[in-house]
Automatic annotation (TrEMBL):
The lineage of its organism: Bacteria, Pseudomonadati, Bacteroidota, Flavobacteriia, Flavobacteriales. Pfam families: Pentapeptide, Pentapeptide_4. It comes from the Bacteria. SUPFAM superfamilies: Pentapeptide repeat-like (SSF141571). This is Pentapeptide repeat-containing protein.
Amino acid sequence: MKQTYISDQDFQNINCTDQPFEIGEYENCTFRNCSFEYADLSGFSFTDCEFITSNLSMTKLVKTAFRSVYFKECKMFGLQFNECNGFGLSFTFDGCALNNAVFYTTSIKKTVFKNSKLIETDFAESDLSQSVFKNCDLSGAIFDRTNLEKADLRTSFNYSIDPSVNRLKKAKFSLSEVHGLLYKLDIEIDWN
């Protein structure tokens, strides 16, 4: 089955419930104020694309390819990134709400998460080495056998990361959030 190839297009104010997207390869496209909520984007390919102020919550992503994709101020609740096509998987998140998203076992080295909410997001067994978490809320995020080597979490907060089960060599943390690394020891920290 031949897939559609679409490049250099600007899509605005589209609701996939009313106007479904054609499955295919999208390159250098911008999706602005679009709603993909509960849509099925399985098998789609997005390369060098931008999603701006769009809603992708609960979108189905089986074998979906995201290559150098930029998400800005998007609502992305419950996305299963672990079901995406892993080849070339790379994206940047800026000002996004990724609550309850799943990155379980994904290899997403050097990913940038900026000014985003990652509440109860599952990063178990992921490779996040050299990733940057800038000013992110990581309340309830799951880090279990996660590779965070050389990751930068200095400006992020509300995380709980057990150093005994995660790889943290040369990772960067701020002193003000160090309790997120020590929580399991059940100790009291005097900030004076």
